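Help needed: design a sequence for this.
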């Protein structure tokens, strides 16, 4: 398992906290797609999401949360 430093994540996002949130959301999205279950050495989805975020392959947009009335 590869370890990602905060600097790696922050370089591709606004800060390290936002980067982790984006990667987690992307990993949940990846989990919805069917996968090849025969691959025994498949990377974990969170690792795959962090790698793609660090490479700059993940595009994201920050939206404001709707306020409750």
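Sure. Designed sequence:
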């Amino acid at each position: 398992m590869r370890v990602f430093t905060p600097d790696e994540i922050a370089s591709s996002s606004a800060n390290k906290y936002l980067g982790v949130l984006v990667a987690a959301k992307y990993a949940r999205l990846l989990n919805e797609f069917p996968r090849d279950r025969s691959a025994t050495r498949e990377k974990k989805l969170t690792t795959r999401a962090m790698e793609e975020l660090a490479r700059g392959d993940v595009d994201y947009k920050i939206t404001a949360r709707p306020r409750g009335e």
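The longest helix spans residues 16-32.
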